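Predict structure. Chain length: 347.
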Amino acid sequence: MSWKDFNPEAVGVENSGIFGLPYTTEEAQVVLIPAPWGVTVSYGSGTHNAPQAIYEASPQIDYYHSSYGADTWKVGIAMLSLKDWDDAYKQGLELREKAKAHIEILAQGEIETAPENINAACETFNLRIQATAAELLANDKLVGLVGGDHSTPLGLMHALANKYGDFGILQIDAHCDLRDSYEGFTYSHASIMHNALKMPQIKRLVQVGLRDYSIHERQVIDDSDGRIKPFFDDEIRERQYKGARWLEIVNDIIGCLPERVYISFDIDGLEPSLCPNTGTPVPGGLRYQEAMFLIQEIAKSGKKIIGFDVNEVSPTEGTEWNENVGMRVLWNLANWSAKSNDLKPLS
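Prediction complete.
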């Protein structure tokens, strides 16, 4: 069926495309890369199943959205075929067992070097993401990534740096992810921002919702000379308790961002009631509408959202709650990012 014959008022059709939309990746203006990879997760697991679970939950969305109103579905959003990533998914499952065994040895107080084949495979996966993203960007697509653990968007960040040059990252997260080779894994989920900051194109990292971080990570922030700007969860709440409005805090966050922005959304940046099955839930965090309002206001501010990711969604058997929240975060990110780029509804 051609997208021009699509009925947005009909029941969502499974297997028709992400969010039940009928677009091919060639037709779509926003293209999502699935990243079914969760090799180095260190607590709860399951993030490797998130792209499939989010895809399956996504037809439950309704199409009216404040970014484009009744024409929102015409923006054109598609996701690359999950089948094309089956090989990575299967390899990740095998390596996860080796990573898990390594982590268990560390937990017993023994010292062991992480298996080199894991670091090598993670690097290869990152390069594949980078090459895939580069091809999409060359075709003028707005690119997002559906993780997977939080290590997965590094390749997309590299591709964006090559295309755009300087930009900033807005990270919504309970954790700083500034650890150097956590548990011996160079591309750990806990090291994504440490690795991203190796790129000179990243001029500013703005972190929102932080509430669980190491002594070393706090020192990295303090020693960054302003390159890293944290908005700690307890400090946000203290400001609110003393009378500050969320809009005031949002404006402060936006004021720290450069003109080009990449949004990295770790689902555990939200309060745990919204993502109870995520790998490392932490009390506190942003309410759903607080996070969506922040994304909305960035798009309306005139800044350009050049790419985005949603990660660390661990599916919930039975209720589909985590993937439902994750796909709605993804829906908002895709549409507000399109709006910030002044993409027009297809006609």
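Summary: The chain has a mean pLDDT of 93.
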